[in-house]
Amino acid sequence: GARFQVLASSGINAEYGGKIYVENERARVTRTLAAIHEKDDELEKAAKVLQELQVETFGTMEKKEKVEFILEQMRLCFETKDYIRTQIISKKISTKYFESEDTEELKLRYYRQMIDLNLHHKEYLAVSKNYHEIYNTPSVKEVEQKWKEALQRVVLYLILSEYDNEQSDMLARIKTDTNLSKLPYYQNVLMCFDTAELLNWSILKKVYSQHLKSSPGEPASPLDKEENWDVLQMRVVEHNIRVLAKYYTRISMQHFADLLHLDSKEAEKRLCEQVVKGTVTAKIDRLDGIICFTKQKDTEQILNAWSGNLNSVMDLIGNVNHLITKERMVHQVS
């Protein structure tokens, strides 16, 4: 009962507190106490008990036991909806540890817990990366059904991710995976976002809606949720804006909206979002209803332009100095 738990907790601190030579025993007993709290449906108490120990500082504890303990801390914090603490605790585990032998079970546990955390924060690119780590695990690669499920989720969460250099780089790497050819619908939808062509949302949803959802008996797909189709529609609009910015320097707002299959107000809003994010560079002339796209310059181009302008100014100063000197000499002679 509650009295036993209080006595057990105080007994642990009295017996083991501050004694380095029994720190491992203290951790194990504390974990047992946390399990008792969890069995009594007292998750917050269980999480609090485990959080009191910083096992990463225990010098005599084996790495495997440390990782198991930290994973348990992460799990309890997540289940008590303490997401910030879960994120902080997760950083105590170095992913390089999973490169060692006999760590696959812990590796899979870690990445699945990270996926749950990333999904809560809607960090789709991080989810895709974590599924990619699961996909690259030998025990998963050995079973076709397992690696197919993992690779499917790598693709789906990748196309749900916001576009940036990191997402683009990962897309370029995933499309070269030979196993992707065994998942034709997933390969095709991934290639849609890799080509500089406008995508028609209505056609895309009609073609892929059934194939990208999970079948009966399969694990849930992210596109089983209607809200994620809304996110995917947003990614299609963003992709189309980048394509238009690539091919147009000037375009009317009405034509721009028609190509995006949006009304003018919504099209302008989406364009402004992409400009703010730095994905495209554009200016809108509202009086004439014209959008002007300009090419983004990298740092080297900006510095070269500045250097060229500076050289031109110095040449002009030199010419002016020469003319002034010439005028003075003519004036002195006369």
Summarize the structure.
The protein is 66% helix and 4% strand. The protein is built from 16 helices and 3 strands. The chain has helices spanning 2-16, 23-39, 43-51, 63-79, 83-90, 104-120, 124-135, 138-141, 144-160, 165-174, 184-192, 201-208, 226-247, 253-260, 264-277, 299-333; strands spanning 250-252, 281-285, 290-294.
Question: Can you describe what's shown?
Answer:
The protein has 334 residues and is mainly alpha-helical. The protein is 66% helix and 4% strand. It has helices at 2-16, 23-39, 43-51, 63-79, 83-90, 104-120, 124-135, 138-141, 144-160, 165-174, 184-192, 201-208, 226-247, 253-260, 264-277, 299-333, and strands spanning 250-252, 281-285, 290-294. A three-stranded antiparallel β-sheet has the order 1-3-2. It is extended, with a radius of gyration of 30 Å.
Helix count equals 16
Q: How far apart are the first and last residues' alpha carbons, in Å?
A: 115 Å
Write down the oligomeric state: single chain
Mean model confidence by pLDDT:
87
Reported for the largest beta sheet, the result is: 3 strands, antiparallel
Structural class, from helix and strand content?
mainly alpha
**Helix amount, in percent?**
55-70%
Count the E strands.
3
Computed over alpha carbons, the radius of gyration is: 30 Å
The dominant shape is extended
**What sequence of helices (H) and strands (E) makes up the elements?**
HHHHHHHHHHHHHEHHEEH
The parts where pLDDT drops under 50 for at least 5 residues are: 1-10
* Percent in strands: under 5%
Sequence of strands across the biggest β-sheet? 1-3-2
